[in-house]
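Hi everyone,

Forwarding the result from last night's run.
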Amino acid sequence: VGANSTPGRVFKGLKMAGRMGSDRVTTVNMTIAQIDPENNLILVKGAVPGPIGSLVLVRSAAKTQVVKAGKK
């Protein structure tokens, strides 16, 4: 990929552009800007992955603490 003819191939595992398909995507640290109970809307600051009209799961950002062996 590129203007040169050497090496003349694409290396295995090279990161290239492409589509995600129907993979589940998790976006962390999103901010809820506003809640509109009349129209049943939650306004989120930033981009939300997925097509328009798709299902979005909103949950708490709290993650569980992982304790390594021998440490508290």
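The beta strands are 31-36, 41-45.

Cheers,
N.
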